[in-house]
Amino acid sequence: MFKIIANKVKARRAEIVTRKGKVQTPCFMPIATKAAVKTITSDEVRQLAPDMILSNTYHLMLRPGQEEMERLGGLHAFMDWDKPILTDSGGFQVFSLAKKRKITPEGVEFNSHIEKNKYFLSPEDSIKIQMNIGSDIMMVLDECVKLPAEKKYLEKSIKLTTFWAKRCKDYFDKVCVDKQEAERPLLFGIVQGGLEKDLRLESAVSLKQIGFDGYAIGGLAVGETEQEMCSVLKYLCSELPEDKSRYLMGVGYPHQIVEAVKAGVDMFDCVIPTREARHGRLYFWNSEFIEKQRNILELDFLSKEFYTTLNIHNEENKFDLSPINSESKFPELRRYSRAYLRHLFVSEDPLAQRLSTLNNLEFYLGLMGKIRLDICSSM
Amino acid sequence: MFKIIANKVKARRAEIVTRKGKVQTPCFMPIATKAAVKTITSDEVRQLAPDMILSNTYHLMLRPGQEEMERLGGLHAFMDWDKPILTDSGGFQVFSLAKKRKITPEGVEFNSHIEKNKYFLSPEDSIKIQMNIGSDIMMVLDECVKLPAEKKYLEKSIKLTTFWAKRCKDYFDKVCVDKQEAERPLLFGIVQGGLEKDLRLESAVSLKQIGFDGYAIGGLAVGETEQEMCSVLKYLCSELPEDKSRYLMGVGYPHQIVEAVKAGVDMFDCVIPTREARHGRLYFWNSEFIEKQRNILELDFLSKEFYTTLNIHNEENKFDLSPINSESKFPELRRYSRAYLRHLFVSEDPLAQRLSTLNNLEFYLGLMGKIRLDICSSM
């Protein structure tokens, strides 16, 4: 299920074998929050060529709804995507978006942020919904504690997260008992524990004992410094099994991804490329870096020198007739000027968000491609 | 410049020769209000294959601005479109969108609806701006009277419109004096006069005396009945020169276009297909009508039986797994289900508007294609 192809420092070039095909790692998963990568078609996602995308259980359970999702033939058919899909457990949005949360060992009760209806999500519910969605990699339900939090609360919380993880695993095994290996989805545990090393390690050890197909690192990039985040990744990756994939949830900026790969992380997802695109912030390679054919893993700690960003709203772009991105595989990014893209943003034409989304996802997926090459090339 | 290829009833199959290529008529021009057909790329417009598009002088003079437009190399280069572009004079939006209008024989003073800056638009200004934009077919500045209006006011107004038309023509001729015939844009007059037959005819006669490359009919579809509109078209088309194109501005629904073609109109533009698309109303052929291979010009007066519309928001579409449009040339409209399109609207994903825009423009342009065929086929 997870085969290491190459190692560099602690960076790993590997592949995850899912029932819907292989995922080459390190990988970045574009986010199809509400059953779509916002503003673009599945055909465009296919052109961007990620091996896997991510969708959000919380949003899908509200709309179209979990039973509706099943009746609609599952997420793959619904959104016209036949490669792997990873789903989160719904937990993160319950703890960040939903209203009136009430946590008990049984699960979490909450009101939807849309129509205020009451819902209840137990660990078993979360797995059941992810099954209905047709997820290929599922996540366990975890408590996402808002930081800063008292250590006592965190201690209690990781115990709950471990308890829920075990229930998810038991339910998952029960449901999958008749499934052939090639048809079985994968289930990942999620390490929590804030910035407390002992709790993080305790969380990792407990999850390893239960045994998962991969291990996610949750609760990072929530306000701590980049240095603090990297330090957690370092000791955690040493503790996590070498032969299972490691997934850093919700991270991050390009230089953070590079640093996390160096620490031994294999999988990433993040709203940054798509959300910032919709606000007119574009990501590009630093052409000097590319021309020098430098190995991206040999950059200084948290160095940003391999990329640049552009705020298209800036006045200086008003008459910039150079292409949005002369290196893009998308003709529309080569043909339209930056001045035109700026004009589309000023005019509030949704085409602006679409073009920027293509640009940023192409950059992020290109970055992962370069990372994979650079891990192998210097061995 | 305008060659009649075939006649049926009063319907004409013709072509307009512009400096950027030929336009087969009857034609429908998709509207690129702010230098873009909202939500779609120029490549997609090219796939839709209209011979000409329309853009709005008023919007372009505010953003990016008329001098900016020139500095940006004109509208064709800016929006990546090299076929003909027709521009309106700016008058219609000045009279419908702008604030604090003051009309004098000299022109019209107004405040922008965006930043409240004061502008002045004379007939000469309008032509000058359209030249800067790079328009291939320009419209004269006219007064667009809000109906109902007193006949006395209308009388005065068409005199002003004629006076402005003459000034536009004089200025246009002056600017074009050195231009070779093949490089010269075209200039159209605009007949006004509300529902007053004598004023409409007077307006038409005065404009003919000035002499234009084509004649537009303005001030219709502004609240009068369809019957009233068709009656104006009938007597006006008899009065307008046979060898010049006739353009019904801002019209309309598919059955209105068919009726106008039967009265002798050659050109159309309208926000309906694109605006309604963005609100989730989709246009389709009535398949029974198509299967019977009926001639569209032989339909009953104002008959709608050749098309259907669908409000995608309706609950009944929630589980409709049939394609958005199985006959479409766009793979995304064949691959995605109506249930999915509805979900995209509910999720407020701009992709919803884009898919619907493609569907409706494909219908409208297909309609014009069928009209052109049907004029010829029964001769």
How would you characterize this protein structure?
The structure is a homodimer of 379-residue chains. With 379 residues, chain A is α/β, with parallel strands linked by helices. Chain A folds into 2 domains: 2-269, Queuine tRNA-ribosyltransferase-like (TIM Barrel), CATH 3.20.20; 281-377, no CATH class. Chain A has helices at 42-48, 57-71, 74-79, 91-96, 123-133, 151-176, 197-210, 226-239, 254-263, 272-278, 287-291, 331-335, 338-346, 351-377; strands at 2-8, 11-18, 21-25, 27-29, 53-55, 85-87, 99-104, 107-111, 118-121, 137-139, 186-191, 214-217, 245-248, 267-269, 281-285, 307-311. In chain A, the strands form 4 sheets. Chain A has an 8-stranded parallel sheet. Chain A has a 3-stranded antiparallel sheet with strand order 1-2-3. In chain A, α5 (123-133) packs across α6 and α10 runs antiparallel to α14 (351-377). Chain A is globular and about 60 Å long. Chain A binds chain B through residues 34-36, 38-43, 63-64, 68, 71-73, 78-80, 318-319, 321, 331-332, 335-337, 339-340, 343-344, 346-347, 349-351, 353-354, and chain B through 34-36, 38-43, 63-64, 68, 71-73, 78-80, 318-319, 321, 331-332, 335-337, 339-340, 343-344, 346-347, 349-351, 353-354.
| Number of continuous helical runs of chain A | 14
Total number of distinct structural domains of chain A: 2
The fold-level CATH name of the largest domain in chain A is: TIM Barrel
Per CATH, the superfamily of the largest domain in chain A is Queuine tRNA-ribosyltransferase-like
Structural class of chain A: alpha/beta
